[in-house]
């Protein structure tokens, strides 16, 4: 059954946090390839990935970023989310063997005029290394 | 057969452009849901999406953004791409019926010290409305 948080704009407070874990597998990588058509060998050819200094094929950065969709749409604020903008910086390469990743978001600004919240985001691998940091601006829709 | 451009850093010139079209279908949406677990009803429940003023279910913004992976990894620069950072602003909602989308990138800065290029990105729906604009900073790896 689909479940998600249902925070409304009035419920959002500065400093609110949400976090969750996600798995990245070969199957996840294949689905992302099917969606995007991104056949780049860094993500698809072990030999090439190793030649560039990586222990395994590198997980698509935009696949790691895709979990920000889940952060906003399921957790913070959940149902009434509408993402306005996203900024991400990739700090370290992500490998399947470093899964699960942990995704964390914290409310750092609340804009009453736009009904928009700013969420600072970090994603960590299972060694607790930060692999991504970013900022999302998310509108909170009226309850319907 | 996997094909991609193989521009090296020395080949990249200011103003270079690449563009391509992508299809978004129900199947694409389902795959993105399976990857992310983002069960938000704006993307999954027609009735809710309509109640929020949309003609159809809204395509995940981070799904639209995922084609920036393809832009860098297949087109510009292609094989030797390593995405450092991405900023995107969602200008209009995307609907499946507005597919195909056209993805365009243009080199606007070249940093010789970091072997990094800046790509200004725009994504248009089939009505030629801009649905996303953004900036990517992409490293160009040495040829291996």
Q: Please write the CATH class name of chain A.
A: Alpha Beta
CATH topology of chain A: the name is Thiol Ester Dehydrase, Chain A
The total count of strands of chain A amounts to 5
Q: Largest interface, per-chain counts? A: A-B, 48 and 48 residues
Q: Number of helix segments of chain A?
A: 4
What's the helix-strand series of chain A? EHHHHEEEE
What is the overall shape of chain A?
Answer: elongated
Q: What is the annotated CATH architecture of chain A?
A: Roll
Query: Strand percentage of chain A, roughly?
Result: 25-35%
Describe the structure in your own words:
The structure is a homodimer. In chain A, about 25% of the residues lie in helices and about 35% in strands. Chain A starts with 16 loop residues before the first strand and ends with a strand. The first copy, chain A, has helices spanning about 25-35, 40-45, 45-50, 60-75, and strands at about 15-20, 80-90, 100-110, 115-125, 130-140. At the A-B interface, helix 1, helix 2, helix 4 and strand 2 of A face helix 1, helix 2, helix 4 and strand 2 of B. Strand 2 of chain A pairs antiparallel with strand 2 of chain B, so a sheet runs across the interface.
């Amino acid at each position: 059954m689909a479940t998600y948080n249902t925070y409304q704009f009035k419920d959002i407070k500065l400093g609110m946090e949400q976090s969750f874990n996600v798995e990245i597998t070969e199957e996840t990588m294949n689905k992302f390839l099917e969606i995007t058509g991104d056949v780049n060998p860094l993500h698809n050819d072990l030999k090439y990935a190793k030649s560039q200094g990586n222990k395994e094929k590198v997980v698509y950065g935009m696949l790691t970023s895709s979990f920000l969709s889940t952060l906003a749409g399921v957790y913070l604020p959940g149902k009434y989310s509408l993402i306005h903008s996203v900024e991400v910086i990739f700090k370290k390469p992500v490998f399947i063997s470093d899964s699960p990743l942990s995704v964390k978001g914290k409310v750092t600004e609340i804009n009453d005029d736009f009904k928009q919240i700013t969420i600072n985001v970090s994603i960590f691998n299972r060694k607790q290394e930060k692999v991504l940091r970013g900022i999302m601006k998310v509108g909170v829709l009226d309850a319907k």
